[in-house]
């Protein structure tokens, strides 16, 4: 629950005396989203602001939790709903479903977090064979009444009774074909009356019962259907994708109906206070005359731009513009608004903070700062690292020779290339086999969610910026082009016909540009993002020709860097990576993996080291490796001059430097059969057998290797020390830190450190230079974390190796499990996200917290960092801030993300402190 928790909320989802399960729209506010859901809380807020909201009431998320846990609604809920329905009927001056002038209501879902199209809605509840006549008489429009009734049966049949929606769609298409019309608005009252009869027969056949004529039964069943929709497969999948908790439940909003399908002076629309694709200010949205809201969201009929409403109904347009300004100033953010006009009267049906593209998020945050609506700290909370990462992806090369075959609405930016597929099943299947795909549909619906997730991008021939495809794609950061009307999509034949008659078959490669709306045949080459060019120093913020997006990113990053406490380092193994990392804002190297320096031409030297039979042979090999290692470090220290460089001594098992055992056995066998010389191969084979381990990641590696192979670690320490001394002699400022890997007990570290200190002292004496090298260890084993207080006695710093720590805590071999059962674990909800992607706070995180605390109790000045790839994961960065680490380290490309999230973590923790 939020801090605005209502005192009458049920504890643990139980129905108890005095609990309030239903709130009138006049009773809530926008801060009660936990209880009333986002939709209900915002309907209440708009009501409080005096905006024209149709009267209604909200059934709380607590009622949903009781229903989902027990299978029954709370005992008091029916009476509460009856009381609020009575009050609504008195206010409206008519009763639900009465024969002469029926009150009709909508029943709509509304969870705390927006889940567009994932849960259920039923409109026009209260219509029956009797009340449809009264509605027609009262409205003076037979067509409107029968259109509303067929919509109710269609939505109720699919949503509540589980009838296949395609059956209703096919019947509707058949009715239009019989009438020789293309859109449903051209069907007349008599046609719709026949369609109602057909729909009722479909319900009877498929559901095994008649469509209910009792309006209260309709409402109660619809309420239960909305509760049930919280646990549909598509809703669960969406929550996993968006990391929304599964235990929140949904509220249910019962709202008196207003009608956009009463003729040309009525309509429905969706509006944004700013463009959700670009962030630019202006008039953005879609409007559809003579329609209900689901028509716009479903993308079944193509809308007109919102700006055209000014010519259609200027009074409503002007009122809407004023309301939009009021809402944006009140919420201090981009607002997404649903509205209906009923015979020239404007009604507000919903508002929420709108989903937006990554670029729009950065632009809007800085715009709102400039307008004085929010401060810099709040601006940081309006963007995130995932959005920044998206902005760093490449985009299409506009100078390339391309074949443009269509253009739609630029709904969600990005450059997506893939094979055309025409249904979600194929998208998922091909994606899992490694293919990149573009999902092409006439319009998407919630059942397409798994295919949308699997695809590189989504292309539809219908719908606008507010259609299901556009809203969901923006929320997921997927490239999307909607409403490309000139493209004829035939999902049954699995093909798309483009202007000029060319046919795109399933499997043909297409490219879509979500920033321009253009559709291309074949694969279009890409160029670096301007945001990457900015971080690389090839584009300068503040210049006259600076990209507007780059300017916004620059400002937000400056905010983040000023606010953050965590420093950000890079995982880099050579000078080239180090220089790039420094351009990206790295404040040092947190992990230099020296094993990467032993590959290539040096593999033969390592083989000789392994095969050495005597101390003299071993020392000769080490002597040859020393200058090569030293030069590596000289280059690294030069590229990171003045910044810390943490060098991890050799970590992987030595067998990784030797030939494959099977391949080598074949070579030896062939040589023997041919009676060819094979002494060296035989010695290698014997060494491979000698070093072979069943589980090498838990075997002879890290500090164990340094203790077993005399001189190996001391050679590396000498190379580091001599390189530092050389840089100092050249007036450089090397700041080397030596990290001992895979320590499980303080005794291991003490032995290695004693040898290292001796070597460093020798180099200092020989060079006449004081080096000030620090020595620490990786905490990557559970035992190291549990004995961190002891280990800190011999360590000047800890760096948490969260990749290995995750493997050893979970008992996972990462290379094996991710490909074998992680997909099943994610689908079953055992994982919300892979523990290798985001740190497991309860398990691995608890050990990090424990070790950090114990280490600093022993050594208060102990420096703490993390060098697993979790260091660049947005959610994990927040955890490391909370634990009190000094820095995170990640790959160069993720450094800007870590910088941004470190700033956000600082701001959010300050906000928590103030509360």
Automatic annotation (TrEMBL):
Record's keyword annotation contains Acetylation? no
EC number(s): the record gives 2.7.9.1
Looking up Gene3D superfamilies in the UniProt record yields: 1.20.80.30, ATP-grasp fold, A domain, ATP-grasp fold, B domain, Phosphoenolpyruvate-binding domains, Phosphohistidine domain, Pyruvate Phosphate Dikinase, domain 2
| GO molecular function (one) | metal ion binding
List, separated by semicolons, the cofactors it needs.
Answer: Mg(2+)
Active-site residues?
468, 867
Binding of substrate: at which residues? Answer: 593, 648, 780, 801-804
What NCBIfam families has UniProt attached to this entry?
Answer: PRK05878.1, pyru_phos_dikin
Q: Which PANTHER family match?
A: PHOSPHOENOLPYRUVATE DIKINASE-RELATED, PYRUVATE, PHOSPHATE DIKINASE 1, CHLOROPLASTIC
Q: Which family does it belong to?
A: Belongs to the PEP-utilizing enzyme family.
Q: What is this protein called?
A: Pyruvate, phosphate dikinase
Q: Which species is this UniProt entry from?
A: Streptomyces chartreusis NRRL 3882
Organismal lineage: Bacteria, Bacillati, Actinomycetota, Actinomycetes, Kitasatosporales
């Amino acid at each position: 629950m939020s801090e605005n928790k209502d005192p009458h909320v049920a504890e643990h989802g139980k129905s108890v005396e005095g609990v309030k399960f239903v709130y009138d729209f006049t009773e809530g506010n926008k801060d009660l989203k936990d209880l009333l859901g986002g939709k209900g809380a915002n309907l209440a807020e708009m009501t409080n602001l005096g905006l024209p909201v149709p009267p209604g009431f909200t059934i709380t998320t607590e009622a949903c939790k009781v229903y989902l846990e027990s299978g029954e609604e709370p005992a008091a809920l029916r009476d509460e709903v009856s009381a609020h329905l009575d009050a609504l009927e008195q206010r409206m001056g008519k009763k639900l479903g009465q024969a002469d002038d029926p009150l009709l209501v909508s029943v709509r879902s509304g969870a705390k977090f927006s889940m567009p199209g994932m849960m259920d809605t039923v409109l026009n509840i209260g219509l029956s064979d009797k009340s449809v006549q009264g509605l027609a008489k009262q409205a003076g429009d037979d067509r409107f009444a029968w259109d509303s009734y067929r919509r109710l049966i269609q939505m109720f049949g699919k949503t509540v009774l589980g009838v296949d929606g395609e059956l209703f769609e096919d019947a509707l298409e058949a009715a239009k074909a019989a009438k020789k019309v293309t859109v449903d608005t051209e069907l007349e009252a008599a046609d719709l009356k026949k369609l109602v009869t057909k729909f009722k027969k479909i319900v009877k056949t498929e559901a095994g019962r008649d469509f209910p004529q009792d309006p209260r039964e309709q409402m109660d069943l619809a309420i239960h259907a909305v509760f049930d929709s919280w646990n549909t497969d598509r809703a669960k999948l969406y929550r996993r994708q968006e990391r929304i908790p599964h235990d929140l439940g949904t509220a249910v909003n019962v709202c008196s109906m207003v009608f956009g399908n009463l003729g040309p002076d009525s309509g429905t629309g969706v509006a944004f206070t700013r463009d959700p694709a670009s962030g630019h200010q202006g008039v953005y949205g879609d409007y559809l005359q003579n329609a209900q809201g689901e028509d716009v969201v479903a993308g079944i009929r193509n809308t007109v731009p919102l700006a055209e409403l000014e010519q259609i109904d200027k009074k409503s347009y002007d009122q809407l513009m004023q309301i939009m300004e009021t809402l944006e100033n009140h919420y201090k953010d981009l607002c997404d608004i649903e509205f209906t006009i009923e015979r020239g009267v404007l009604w507000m049906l919903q508002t929420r903070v709108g989903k937006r593209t990554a670029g729009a998020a950065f632009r809007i945050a800085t715009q709102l700062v400039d307008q004085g609506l929010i401060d810099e700290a709040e601006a940081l909370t309006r963007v995130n690292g995932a959005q920044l990462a998206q902005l760093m992806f490449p985009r299409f090369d506009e100078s390339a020779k391309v074949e443009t075959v269509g253009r739609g609405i630029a709904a969600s930016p990005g450059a997506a290339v893939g094979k055309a597929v025409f249904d979600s099943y194929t998208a998922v299947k091909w994606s899992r086999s490694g293919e990149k795909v573009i999902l092409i549909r006439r319009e998407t619906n919630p059942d397409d969610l798994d295919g949308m997730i699997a695809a590189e991008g989504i292309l539809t021939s219908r719908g606008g910026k507010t259609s299901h495809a556009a809203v969901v794609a923006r929320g997921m950061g997927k490239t999307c082009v909607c409403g490309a009307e000139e493209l004829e999509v035939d999902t049954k034949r699995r093909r798309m016909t483009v202007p000029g008659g060319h046919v795109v078959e399933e499997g043909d490669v297409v490219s879509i540009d979500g920033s321009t709306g253009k559709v291309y045949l074949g694969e279009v080459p890409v160029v670096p993002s301007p945001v990457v060019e900015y971080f690389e120093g090839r584009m300068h913020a503040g210049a006259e020709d600076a990209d507007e997006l780059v300017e916004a990113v620059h400002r937000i990053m400056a905010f983040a860097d000023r606010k953050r406490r965590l420093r950000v380092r890079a995982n880099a193994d050579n000078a080239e990576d180090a220089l790039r990392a420094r351009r990206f804002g790295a404040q040092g190297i947190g992990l230099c993996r020296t094993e990467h320096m032993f590959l290539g031409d040096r593999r033969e030297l390592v083989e000789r080291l392994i095969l050495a039979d005597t101390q003299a042979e071993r020392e000769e090999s080490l002597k040859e490796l020393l200058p090569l290692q030293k030069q590596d470090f000289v280059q690294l220290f030069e590229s990171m001059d003045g910044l810390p460089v943490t060098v991890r001594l050799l970590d992987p098992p030595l067998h990784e430097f030797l030939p494959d055992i099977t391949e080598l056995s074949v070579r030896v066998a062939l040589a023997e059969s041919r009676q060819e010389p094979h002494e060296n191969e035989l010695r290698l084979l014997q060494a491979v057998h000698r070093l072979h381990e069943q589980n090498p990641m838990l075997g002879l590696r890290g500090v164990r290797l340094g203790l077993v192979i005399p001189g190996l670690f001391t050679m590396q320490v000498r190379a580091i020390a001599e390189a530092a001394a050389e840089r100092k002699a050249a007036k450089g400022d090397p700041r080397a830190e030596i990290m001992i890997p895979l320590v499980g007990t303080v005794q291991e570290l003490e032995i290695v450190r004693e040898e290292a200190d001796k070597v460093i002292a020798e180099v200092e004496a020989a060079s006449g230079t004081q080096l000030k090298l620090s020595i620490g260890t990786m905490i990557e084993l559970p035992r190291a974390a549990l004995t961190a207080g002891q280990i800190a006695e011999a360590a000047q710093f800890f760096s948490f190796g969260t990749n290995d720590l995750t493997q050893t805590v979970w008992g996972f071999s990462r290379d094996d499990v991710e490909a074998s059962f992680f997909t099943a674990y994610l689908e079953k909800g055992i994982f919300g996200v892979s523990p290798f992607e985001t740190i497991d706070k309860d398990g691995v995180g608890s050990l990090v917290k424990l070790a950090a605390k114990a280490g600093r109790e022993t050594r208060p000045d102990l420096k703490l960092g993390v060098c697993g790839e979790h260091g660049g994961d947005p959610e994990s960065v927040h955890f490391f801030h909370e634990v009190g680490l000094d820095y995170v380290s990640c790959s160069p490309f993720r450094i800007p993300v870590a910088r941004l999230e470190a700033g956000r973590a600082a701001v959010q923790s300050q906000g928590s402190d103030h509360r």
